[in-house]
From TrEMBL:
It is an enzyme of class 2 (transferase). It catalyses: RX + glutathione = an S-substituted glutathione + a halide anion + H(+). It comes from Eutrema salsugineum (Saltwater cress). This is glutathione transferase. Keywords: Cytoplasm, Detoxification, Transferase. Belongs to the GST superfamily. Tau family.
Amino acid sequence: MAERSDEVKLLGMWASPFSRRIEIALTLKGVPYDFSEQDITNKSPLLLQLNPVHKMIPVLVHNGKPISESLVILEYIDDTWQNNPILPQDPYERAMARFWAKFVDEQICVTAMKVVGKIGEEREAVVEATRDLLMFLEKELVQKDFLGGESFGFVDIVATLVAFWLMRTEEIVGVKVVPVEKFPKIHRWVKNLMEINVIKKCIPPEDEHLSYIRARMEKLKFKAP
Ligand SMILES: N[C@@H](CCC(=O)N[C@@H](CS)C(=O)NCC(=O)O)C(=O)O
């Protein structure tokens, strides 16, 4: 649990899967925090001051010190509050968890984001590319309830982006990127996630989230075919 002297503040945005990762980790650890909702279309002087390199949320401020980039923040939280560990203890397992987290961000997230930005044949190609990448997660979930193994951990927190952003976006773009027939293990994993109280508490409410994603896509002129 947080020490009484800990001052923890999260600059985030309610609909951001990156910001939600940090809320999940802080909630799992029982760390009280102040949440500062940021407008990413009109960045606050505080955000620009605290994250001058990327100018992005989330930023965690612990006792006045800012930390940016969600994967870095998650590790910081795990190092600082050691109850309910997020990363495995074994060095090889830790390396593997970091490997898959990096894969989710650098490969799945980057490719999946293009699904909403493309139409027609180009969209079909990125949907296929996203499925090829997701197949690696599907295989990781054989005989495992969570990407972290027996229990929910670092990779699961990072991959909530697949469960609560990519799979929600399907309804808006009108394409089943993660069909249950092809990805039964991923669908089972999403069900397992939904049984965790911290997850139930920390994911954005579905209807508001879908309206937000739809409005943002319209603003960016992304249209369903
Ligand atoms: N690699 C970053 C990505 C964070 C990110 O993409 N944040 C978005 C909100 S979902 C943002 O702040 N966007 C503002 C911008 O791109 O200017 C992380 O893991 O923290």
